[in-house]
Every structure is written in structure tokens, then in C-alpha cells.
Description:
Elements: H1 2-30, H2 33-42, H3 47-60, H4 62-70, H5 75-98, H6 116-127, H7 129-137
Helix pairs in contact: 5-6, 5-7, 6-7
Amino acid sequence: MRLIAYIVIFSLIREARKILVVRLLQRMVILSGKKLRTILIKDGTCKTHNNARLKCDDFMNQRTNVARRIDVISKEEEKRYEIRLNSSLDVARFLIMQGDAFRGHDESSTSNNKGTYREMVDWYKDKVEIVKDAYDKGAKIAQ
Length: 143
């Protein structure tokens, strides 16, 4: 009989713990998402778990993450990139319509014959001032 009483008491204690845990979780859910997130960050289980959660958040929100953390691109830089891209595509379209080759044997900047594509891009830069500014002030990769 005592054994049955102990089992019943033990099961009641377990149920009481479950109820307390459920009530605690309900209170945590009532908190706003930001407050709950800061509680989880401060009282998180371990560093690796927090790092994994942050990486998951970054992955789920890639657009703002890339703009915010890696490199903030200004509107001017974006416009210069668009000009460089459009001018390169214009030159490529022209060479394709003519059926000309794009490459030369020596494409270094000091070469006299850099190849048709690079010669055309340089010619385009000389003729259109906006394109020249975009290439001169643009990224080092574009030069």
C-alpha cells in the first residue's frame, strides 16, 4: 500500500513540475519577441548554440545581412557599377554582331594590342565621359 502511495505522490510531483514548466513557458511567450530573444542570448545554453542561432538568423535574412555586415554600397557606387555593366554589355553586343573575337594575345595594360574587347572598352571610355568616370572611380576589380 505504501508503495502505491509513493508512486501516486511521485507522479503528482511530476505533474506539478510539468504544470509549472508549462506556466513558465506561457509567461515567456507573452513577452515580446525581442525581449525573449535577449533573454535567450544572455541565458543561452552555450556559445556554439548562440553562434549557430545567429548564423541561422543571418541566413534567413540575407538581404539585410549582406547590406549591413559585409559591405555597405552607396547609391553612387551602385550607379557606377550599373554604368560599367551596361557599357561592357554594349561592347560585347557589338563584337558579337560583328562576329569578332574578344581576346588578344597580350591583354596587359601596357600592350599595344590588348584584344578587341579591351580596345573597344577603352575607346568607349574615351568617347563617353560618364563611362570613363565610372571606370576611374569604380572598384579596383573593374580596372
